[in-house]
Amino acid sequence: MAVVNKRKEVAEVETAGGGDSRPMPFSELEQHFIELLNSGSTGAIQMVDAVLAQALAYRASDVHLEPRERKAILRYRIDGLLHPVAQLPAEHHPKVVGRIKVLSRIVTYQKDLPQDGRIDGESVPFAKPMRVSTYPTVYGEKIVIRVLDKDPTLFSLDALGFRPEIVAGLRRVIARPQGVFLLTGPASSGKTTSIYALLDELHRVRGSTVNIVTIEDPVEYRLDFATQTEINPHLGFTFDAALRAVLRQDPEVIMLGEVRDTDTARAVIQAGLTGHFVISTIHAGTAAGVSTRLIEMGIEPYMITSCLTGVLAQRLLRKNCPDCTAPYDPPETLRKQYDPNPDSSAFKHGVGCASCYGIGYRSRRAVGELLPLSEKVAQAVLGRKRTGDIHQVAISEGMIPLQQDAFSVAQIGETTLEEVQRVLPIEKN
């Protein structure tokens, strides 16, 4: 049975099996999909088409199909959260998986090893390009489908939702001819989108005079102004190996998907020191934690300060649905977690309507903390200061921390304090 926050019935909208891209009410999806599965020899084909069409109608970023002992659970990830939409009979699961494998051009009879594939936008009615991942479980293969949104406005720095000060700072950082710029944040925090926006900005400013190369795992969005490649660790084509090889291709701007290990970190730093501009991601809790993470990987502090131009830590917050936003009074204890003296700002929340499918939120925006490597920050890194100390130095230099940035978004009524707490909980001492 479908479950969403703010359970409010959505106005009924009819849809044919995959033949319409309008969303059906959540409560009707399960019966609709089951009817398609039972419609005959082409039932699995129609059902998969309908599942993907409805995912797009709901603006889902991912589709999860998870087998259980007696059923298969279908869930859509909408604005960062998974929502159950249907429980399907277990006997149909192999046929559905087989259809998805055919669409994504992966081996249909291979069931005991993970596989990756891709669905082209022309393969399914109303579809966009999608990345498919299979994973063996005790009850069958789990499928996760990532929708690759090719909306050109997606890759604009001004459209990401960052504060104007961060956007201006990002433009200053990428205007430099060389160095390393790193992004950090958990999975699904928008790092890839931000990187593509930075690359688009570089191309827009420098035009055809710049040689942009990307090294990814995998390539999610196809760029017509860059040379893109995917790593293949099984063949030894790792991030480190690809980066060393691409340096012989006369690049000026290099985008590398992730700094995962010491060898890759050293290669990235070396590339930044030798006249290239490198953009990559690394896992660290905060912007200040990135230098600490690099030192833990064996990178000497003086090399970090010599080439690191800045760090962006970011998160994504769900935005209140503009069609059903209403004033509300969040708990005082919650407000005081983010501001000891909360003012009477007009906090708002979405009550749920047809436009947001009863959820109360619609779309997301980015919040972040941008840490330029100022002289004082560099001295703290050279002194191997703790992450907390570097963080405080950065704040004294004008950096607005993530929690404060997110709280300000709630203060203007664009999101809720509950959403801020979900994404950026404040740790209690």
Quick recap:
This protein has 429 residues and is an alpha/beta fold. It contains 14 helices and 15 strands.
Properties at a glance:
429 residues; alpha/beta; seven-stranded mixed sheet; six-stranded antiparallel sheet; 14 helices; 15 strands; 24% strand; globular; disordered N terminus
Helix and strand arrangement:
Blueprint: H1 26-37, H2 43-57, E1 60-67, E2 71-78, E3 81-89, H3 93-104, E4 115-119, E5 130-137, E6 140-147, H4 164-174, E7 179-184, H5 191-206, E8 212-216, E9 227-230, H6 239-246, E10 253-256, H7 262-273, E11 277-281, H8 289-296, H9 301-307, E12 308-320, E13 325-327, H10 332-338, E14 348-350, E15 361-372, H11 375-382, H12 387-396, H13 402-411, H14 417-423
Parallel strand pairs: 7-11, 7-12, 8-9, 8-10, 10-11
Antiparallel strand pairs: 1-2, 1-6, 2-3, 4-5, 5-6, 12-15, 13-14
